Amino acid sequence: MSDPGNIADNADRSLGQLVATATAEMSALVHDEIALAKAEVRQDVKRGVTGSLVIIIAGVLVLFAFPVLSFAAAYGIHNLGLGLAWSFLIVGVAFVVLGGLLAWFAVAKFKQVKPPEKSIASAKQTAAVLQGVKPHPRPSVPGASHPAVTGSTRADKALEAAPAQDEASPVARSTT
Asked: What pTM does this model have?
């Protein structure tokens, strides 16, 4: 990128070169903002995936372990002298508490997922700067005609047909 403080270098450059430089810098800015947004989203997706995996593991553990361990624990408690129904109730409550703790951990991970704040702030700042930029109106020269150029493009023909001075527009036009 060029140094905007280098006035001597800018004075020697043509309007086309300045527009090309501005376009390249704008393109680089957009690419950098997209890369920042991707990095922030990637980080939040990792957090979301971690939370999802934990909740899936919790569900699988409860699903497969519940019948086997509940029977084993209930019969073990029954062997200690407690009634069979009370033994199964104690084991069932213990598994529900364990599943609840794992779900609480997963919800805590999901709450850490945030919007891409840096990208949003950067995009708002860029939009604020670009809203203040207005193109310079072209001077109208009465009676002046554009020289005919062989092999001109549609954009060139449209510019020739356009009035000599346009109203300022917040969107820059490009002829590609």
From this structure: 0.36
